[in-house]
TrEMBL record:
Protein name (record): LacI family transcriptional regulator
Organism: Rhizobium daejeonense
Origin organism lineage: Bacteria, Pseudomonadati, Pseudomonadota, Alphaproteobacteria, Hyphomicrobiales
GO molecular function: DNA-binding transcription factor activity; transcription cis-regulatory region binding
Keywords assigned: DNA-binding, Repressor, Transcription, Transcription regulation
Matches recorded under SUPFAM superfamilies: lambda repressor-like DNA-binding domains, Periplasmic binding protein-like I
Domain HTH lacI-type: 9-63
Pfam families associated with the record: LacI, Peripla_BP_3
Key word Zinc-finger present: no
Amino acid sequence: MKNEQPRRTTIHDVAKAAGVSIATVSKALNNNGRMQPETRDRIKRAAAELGFRPNALARGLLSKRSFTVGLLTNDAYGRFSLPMMAGVSEALVDHGVSVFLCATNDDPALTHLHIEALLDKQVDGIVFSATRLDRRPHMDLSSLPIPVVYVFAEGPPGSVVIIPDDYQGARIAVQHLIDKGRKRTAHITGPDDYRAVRVRAEAYRDLCGGDEPVLFGEWEESWGHQAVDLLWSRDQAPPDALFCGNDQIARGAIDALRDRNIAIPEDVSVVGFDNWEIVAEQTRPPLTTVDMGMKELGRQAGLAVLTLSKGQSMSGGTRKLPCSLVVRQSS
């Protein structure tokens, strides 16, 4: 017995159901041309009821767009790129735009290969993201014939750049500890060659002064443990709060405090940075931390590349999005 596939609904079917011409259907579904709002609504309703899906190739030929965008990232683990991609996709899905994720693994040759592939696919634009704010792509993207938006990364002068506000994020973390009555907050953070590390340290010093040190180290739990040993080995009163540069450092610090039978948050409050949920929620006690809003960064980048891909103007420069504090039981 022959298995017959159901016939695909065509634009002719929509035109017949709505009682209009094929040209009118095309204008209504592409939101252009002049017609009564009731007519446009009737056509869209008929298309939805019939399950009509416009041919992507034909739509691209008419609009001179492919309705695809590339997300180019050097984040091989997905810690930053996956929530950002969710945000980019959320911004674009209602506009019929799909996203290609390309991981470069910080390899210049692979970066070049991905860019060539995206250009071959005639994507409408590229969103470039990195794992640190002061990282640029391995090749100059400003000469590409399509718009490029930089998110959680550094872009060339005049480009559209979207990053979290690290200074504001650090301030709300430290202010939270001050509001909890903490008088001696120390800052344990990552390498000082990171711009974000220096910006957060500046915010910390602006609120706390220089009575307690800023300890620079690695983005690892072991550094958090080591830093606590350093702070508690001094010949002075230990801190009653720790502001940590990421959640891994914070978890290491909490483990070290528990090894010393120091109660958290009764004796020492701890706040991290990143809101990496798999770390923050599994820390004991669960970690209060700063959320950089990676998904919202991606959403705003998606809207920006969509605007530029339509040929609309958009002012360049760096846009900083506010962070938020996720309060759990460590503070």
